Structure formats: structure tokens, C-alpha cells
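Example 3.2
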Amino acid sequence: MPFLGQDWRSPGWRWVKTEDGWKRCEPFSPALEDGNSQLNDISHTVIITGDDEDEEIYSTEDCEFAAKKRKKDHFRNNTDSQCFYREKWIYVHKESTRERHGYCTLGEAFNRLDFSSAIQDIRRFNYVVKLLQLIAKSQLTSLSGAAQKNYFNILDKIVRKVMEDQYNPRLIKDLLQDLSSTLCILLRGVGKSVLVGNINIWVCRLETVLLWQQQLKNLQINKQVSSGLTLSDLPLHMLNNILYRFSDGWDIITLGQVTPTLYMLSEDRQLWKKLCQYHFAEKQFCRHLILSEKGHIDWKLMYFALQKYYPIKEQYGDTLHFCRHCSILFWKDTGHPCTASDPNTCFMPVSPQHFIDLFKF
């Protein structure tokens, strides 16, 4: 059986410490070899220091420590010469074997699956944000120090992206609200729960989250000026079709605030009835019936009432996938080295909650 990873008898990978945590270097990278040759020249030179015209010459052995230190600084600062994680997948294993030592952690998955780049893809943005929100609610204390750092680094990039692109700020506000509530509870109950890291670090993180919330609160959506065709110029049946394609009630309400015509279409009872039927079962309707003054079912109020008691269906442009044959987690467009005869039958989409469950031990 071929190895899907590195042979367990090998000496191991080469790791470099970066701002996002420890990352693996590509072992025989030409750029790294050029950097090594330049830095190795330091150990073969003679260092001369002048002090009252007296010269002190150090041997190669004396310069070895300084050369190693400069080499470390070179790898930390020169990110162009680093080649991390050519493969964008991770093998999910929970115990040690002869072929694989150790187990996967949430922090390792964050590095290998490249969530920092995933937030730049509009298809994956909502998926990553929902994942961070679930971690903020239940898994924040279980993260290692490296995973915590990666978590807040990714969150910082998300906030910056929203401030620049003004894309879906409501989703980020909900995430920051849940995160700030969790941090307040943890700080009030310090000593009762285990916090990885110094308490001052967590206080600083809470202050940062509150600052992000204030920035998003003061965010002004720029009005785009266009001389071409606008949303208001579309016929009513096309606008209605657009509303029927939304799976989130808040998106329907937000779009209805654009023009009076869209507001009229967004209040359609049939639209909210279809939305309730999409997310909830008929038995759930009977338990939470809400009637209007005219005696009709108020589907709009029912949607938000049912949302408090039952989870809604999640829709994402792109999600992670899990291969049942190889036990590998990956993005579908990047793929993975599958050994199954028919790989497509082994793939299954992974929801954000399922992703967290994979790394619970």
C-alpha cells in the first residue's frame, strides 16, 4: 500500500516560524538553496573589528553561531523564498500508527487547508466565517496556542476585507458578537476554565474584538454611481425571481429596503411560505403557528420564530469535502491523491459543524 504522507522512518520536515505560526519549508527548494549558499558564506569569512587600530580575527567556528542566527532571520523575513504546503489537503487521523505519528489538530487543519486564502474567494467566504463563529461559541478554549493565533489572524484579515470591500458586514457583526460574549464569560470565570496563554493576552484580544465591532458599526456603505443598467430597471418578474433565489430571510429584508418596488415584492406571503418550506418540516409549522390580524398565517414571522428553535439549511458556494476512502479533508477544486477506483463516489461535503466534529478528541 503506498504512503499518502512522508515515510515514518524519515528524519522529519523542516519547519520555520512565521507570523501565522510554524510552517513547513519545501526541502530542496532552489530559492532556499540559493539563500543557504549566501548565508553559508558568512561562516567562511573573517570578521575584523577595529578598536584603536587593533584587529581581532575570529575563526570559522566562532562565527558558526552568528551564521545560524542570521540564517533564521533570513527565513523569517524573506517569505518569497519559502514554499509551504504545496498540497492543500490534510489526512484526518486520530491515533498514531507505524506510518503516521501523532494526530491532527484544528490548528494544523487551519494551516494546511489555507483558510487565509480561502476568505479571498467569494464562494468560500461565508463558509469560513460560519466555521469561525462555531469555534467562537464552543471550541475557543480547546484551541492550542498556535491555533488561537491562526484564528485571530484569519479573523483580522476578514475584518480588513469587509472594511475594504464592504461585503456582508452583517455576517461579521454576528461573528464578533458571539466572540465577544464568549471572551467576556471566559474572563469573568477565569480560574474555572483553562485558558491557553496569559490572561493579559485574552484581555488584549477582547479589546481588539470590541474595536472591530466599533469599526463595523461606523462603516458607511459607499453608494455606487453607475450610468448603465441598474437593479431598478429590471422587470418585476426578474426582480421576483431574484428574491426567490435567496435562502436567508435577512437578505430578503435587506434587498427590500433598496426601493419601494423591492419592498413590495419582499413582503409577498408566498415568498416567505416557500422559504419556510425550504428550511423547516411541516410538523415544525404546527408547533409554532402565527396568525395575522386577518386570520392568515404570517409566514414571515413564522420564519424568524422557527429559526430560534430549529437550525436552517446551510448553503455555501464551495465547501470542504471529505474522502471516506482516504480519510482526507480537502477543497474540491484542488483535489487530493485518491487511491479509490471511483473517487467521486467517496466524496462527501463537510458542513462547518461536521468540520469541528472531525477534530474533537
